[in-house]
């Protein structure tokens, strides 16, 4: 647990309000958890499989679509591929809220940069900004990213960890299903693959995660980024997990639910006044 | 001086999975998935949770697989011993009581199993017994245990017990209950990460025990 010092004077208070995360409730929460058995809410995490490959003139990203809260599936078809700019996309694993907000913020920063400079943003710019931000927050922003794009210098693929470290790689996997997906990547990756074969490879790697990792599941989303066409998300590129059995239930007759109390309020009242004018 | 080191011993594991039992007037339906998992990994996709004890009694166990195997092996041995002594198979009610004492015998180092015992009793009626890990037993019209039990129970409360419903609807027949069990396990497979792959359904009635299998999702 992070130790927070009690503010001694107004300067301490001012210092604590300068921005960043506030840890003032940490002590209280620890006390509540210990004494009253009140636990803080847990965030939705995507126990995920994401991956990406770099080819001669394209980058391909892919992700599964399962979001979990502990052992429960919170969303069977969520979107883990995020738009950063026309030529840069990223796949995210970790805390859902952090991923969504981080990517939205980066999207807005890159659009402002594009308008200010009149050029397409470079992939290395996005990576530098993301890693600086994540390092500043010391890993508390739970974003594990596979970032890919094509800029004036060609196709690039990066891996970014929640603490801010980055790697530039020809192929990569992240999330709880990364080991299953990496097995496929190591066996079959080759930089001379065509785009169509590349799509098949990333989908196969994600399928390995979907079937062999309980934190991953649902469908396969793919994103292809090329110099000519920019990036495009192929939502539900594969659907390997359609429901196999569905019984026909008789619908509950109308009025089945018991009524405990009935109260009808008149919310709109119409008043008419006749005013005589001369 | 060296700091004190805390030694921990954790002999238990949770292997997930879901099972359920529903009693009818003269039959009983038992259903369970066949996934064996731990944490985020699947150990095997095809591992039965259900063991047949007599011609009209089966037991389904969730929790820790190694304890379930040991318990089932022990119970099967007790079935043989009973048959040798009494020249007939034990009744479901007798097995139910024996299982309760077997579990409580290990009160302070329990079998980490959550059992559902099902069969047709001496009066020909469907019987479902529910247990906790240390031998608390109750005969119930329907029950469920395992990682998806909270999801199963809500559907059984509505469809079997018809809780909180003012309009009487016809209760399900034998085929209807089997269909319901298939549907419920399919639904649990959608939302519980430890439940999936395949499922078995045992139907026990006057004709004996019949087993059917069907597919769940593999993700």
TrEMBL record, chain A:
A Pfam family of this chain: Pr_beta_C
Proteasome beta subunit C-terminal domain residues: 240-274
Cellular localization per UniProt: Cytoplasm; Nucleus
Database matches in InterPro entries: Ntn_hydrolases_N, Pept_T1A_subB, Proteasome_bsu_C, Proteasome_bsu_CS, Proteasome_sua/b, Proteasome_suB-type
Lineage: Eukaryota, Sar, Alveolata, Dinophyceae, Suessiales
PROSITE patterns given in the database record: PROTEASOME_BETA_1 (PS00854), PROTEASOME_BETA_2 (PS51476)
A cellular component term, taken from the record's GO annotations: proteasome complex
Protein name: Proteasome subunit beta
Record note on quaternary structure: Component of the proteasome complex.
Gene3D superfamilies per the UniProt record, alphabetical: Glutamine Phosphoribosylpyrophosphate, subunit 1, domain 1
UniProtKB/TrEMBL annotation, chain B:
Subcellular location per the Swiss-Prot or TrEMBL entry: Cytoplasm; Nucleus
Signal peptide: none
An example Gene Ontology CC term for this record: proteasome complex
Keywords: Cytoplasm, Nucleus, Proteasome
Function: Component of the proteasome, a multicatalytic proteinase complex which is characterized by its ability to cleave peptides with Arg, Phe, Tyr, Leu, and Glu adjacent to the leaving group at neutral or slightly basic pH. The proteasome has an ATP-dependent proteolytic activity.
PANTHER family with a match to the protein in the record: METALLOPROTEASE TLDD, PROTEASOME SUBUNIT BETA TYPE-1
Family named by the database record: Belongs to the peptidase T1B family.
Name the record gives this protein: Proteasome subunit beta
Organism of provenance: Durusdinium trenchii
Subunit structure: Component of the proteasome complex.
């Amino acid at each position: 647990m992070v130790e927070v010092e009690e503010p001694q004077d107004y300067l301490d208070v001012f210092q604590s309000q300068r921005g960043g995360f506030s840890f003032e409730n940490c002590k209280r929460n620890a006390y509540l958890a210990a004494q009253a058995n009140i636990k803080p809410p847990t965030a939705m995490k995507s126990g995920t499989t994401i991956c990406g490959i770099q080819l001669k003139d394209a980058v391909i990203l892919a992700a599964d679509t399962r979001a979990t809260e502990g052992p429960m599936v919170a969303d069977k078809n969520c979107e883990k591929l995020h738009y950063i700019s026309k030529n840069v996309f990223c796949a995210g694993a970790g805390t859902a809220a952090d991923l969504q907000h981080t990517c939205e913020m980066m999207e807005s920063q890159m659009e402002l940069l594009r308008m200010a400079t009149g050029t397409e943003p470079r992939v290395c710019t996005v990576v530098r900004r993301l890693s600086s931000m994540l390092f500043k927050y010391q890993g508390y922003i739970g974003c594990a990213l596979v970032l890919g794009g094509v800029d004036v210098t060609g196709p690039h693929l990066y891996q970014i960890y929640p603490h801010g470290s980055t790697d530039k790689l020809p192929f990569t996997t992240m999330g709880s299903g990364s080991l299953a997906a990496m097995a496929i990547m190591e066996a079959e990756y080759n930089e001379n693959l065509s785009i169509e074969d590349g799509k098949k490879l990333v989908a196969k790697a994600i399928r390995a995660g979907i079937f062999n990792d309980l934190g991953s599941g649902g469908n396969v989303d793919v994103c292809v980024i090329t110099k000519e066409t920019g990036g495009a998300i192929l939502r539900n590129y594969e659907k390997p997990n359609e429901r196999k059995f569905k019984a026909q239930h008789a619908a509950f007759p109308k009025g089945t639910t018991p009524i405990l109390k009935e109260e009808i309020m008149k919310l709109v009242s119409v008043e008419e006044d006749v005013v005589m004018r001369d | 001086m060296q700091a004190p080191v805390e030694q921990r011993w954790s002999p238990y594991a949770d292997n997930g999975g879901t099972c359920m039992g529903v009693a009818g007037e003269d039959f009983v339906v038992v259903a369970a998935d066949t996934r064996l998992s731990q944490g985020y990994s699947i150990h095997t996709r095809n591992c039965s949770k259900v063991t047949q004890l007599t011609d009209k009694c089966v037991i389904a166990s969730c929790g820790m697989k190694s304890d379930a195997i040991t318990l089932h092996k022990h119970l099967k041995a007790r079935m043989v011993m009973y048959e040798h002594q009494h020249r007939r198979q034990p009744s479901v009610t007798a097995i139910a009581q024996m299982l309760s004492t077997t579990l409580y015998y290990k009160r302070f180092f329990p079998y980490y199993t959550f059992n559902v015992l099902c069969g047709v009793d001496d009066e020909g009626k469907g019987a479902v017994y529910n247990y906790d890990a240390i031998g608390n037993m109750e005969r119930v019209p329907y029950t469920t245990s395992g990682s998806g039990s909270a999801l199963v129970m809500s559907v059984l409360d509505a469809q079997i017990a018809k809780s909180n419903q003012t309009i009487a609807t016809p209760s399900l027949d034998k085929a209807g209950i089997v269909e319901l069990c298939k549907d419920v396990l399919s639904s649990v497979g959608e939302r519980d990460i430890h439940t999936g792959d395949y499922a078995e359904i045992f139907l026990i009635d006057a004709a004996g025990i019949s087993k059917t299998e069907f597919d769940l999702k593999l993700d």
